[in-house]
C-alpha cells in the first residue's frame, strides 16, 4: 500500500479557469507506482476552487468564467469588502465549485475522461500562488505491470 502526502505550489494566475493537470502530475512521480488508488486534491484557499472540466476547447474555460461572473456579480451590497470588490464574490464562487477533488487512479494514470482536465478556478483578479495538498493512496503495481 502506498500513501503519499505532499503540498505543492501552483504558479500565480489571473482570474479565470486554468488547466493545471500538467503542473500537478510532474510533482507526483509516485503515481507511476500505483496500480489502483485514489488521488485527493485539496486547495488551501477560499477565494479559488478546483474543478474537472473540458480541456480541449479554451472557449469552455472562458464561458465558465463569464457564466460564473453573471451568477455571482461584483456589484452587490456585500458586507465583507475590506479586501476589495473581487474578494467576497471569490469566496462565494469557491463555495459553489468547491476546494477539493478525488480522482480514481488505475495503472499509474488518473482516470479522467478523454476531454477532462483538472482546473484551478482563480476567482481573484490577482490571487497569487496557490497551495494544493496532494494525497495519493493505492496498491502498488507489480513488477510485471
Estimate the mean pLDDT confidence: 96
Helix content: 10-25%
Radius of gyration: 17 Å
Strand order of the largest sheet: 1-8-3-5-6
Question: Which structural class do the helices and strands define?
Answer: alpha+beta
CATH architecture: Sandwich
Overall outline:
elongated
Beta-strand content estimate = 35-45%
Oligomeric form:
single chain
Q: Total number of β-strand segments?
A: 8
Superfamily (CATH H level) name: YjbQ-like
Unreliable stretches (pLDDT < 50, length at least 5) are none
Assign the CATH topology.
Answer: Jelly Rolls
Order of secondary-structure elements: EEHEEHHEEEE
**What characterizes the major β-sheet?**
5 strands, antiparallel
Helical region count?
A: 3
Integer tally of domains: 1
Topology:
Elements: E1 2-10, E2 14-19, H1 21-24, E3 34-43, E4 48-54, H2 58-71, H3 87-97, E5 100-106, E6 109-110, E7 116-126, E8 130-140
Short description:
This protein is of the alpha+beta class and 145 residues long. It has three helices and eight strands; from the N terminus they run ββαββααββββ.
Model description:
With 145 residues, the protein is an alpha+beta fold. The protein has a single domain, classed as Sandwich (Jelly Rolls), CATH 2.60.120. The protein contains three helices and eight strands. The strands form two sheets. It has a five-stranded antiparallel beta sheet with strand order 1-8-3-5-6, with no helix packed on it.
